[in-house]
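QA checklist item 7 of 12: single-chain prediction sanity check.
[x] sequence parsed
[x] length recorded as 84
[x] structure emitted
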Amino acid sequence: MRRVARRLVLTRHSKKLIEAMARTNPITFLQQVRTEVGKVTWPSRNEVLISTLMVLVLVAVASVFFLAVDQIISLIIQYVLGIA
């Protein structure tokens, strides 16, 4: 079977983009970052609160579930080994 060497093919656009990125000074970079951050759709305070509460509730449910499973497995192992 013949092996075909794979190469990264750069188009003119990607070459220009790489060159432009290499020449960007820190002030221009920070200006671009500020512009991009302004385009971000940030969640509202209510959305953050609801998401946080959902995470906390699911963590509590998962904790209780794994506690119950752990206790059941512990009882089964004690019964099988005759420790209890």
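[x] summary fact logged: Residues 45-81 form the longest helix (37 residues).
[ ] second reviewer sign-off
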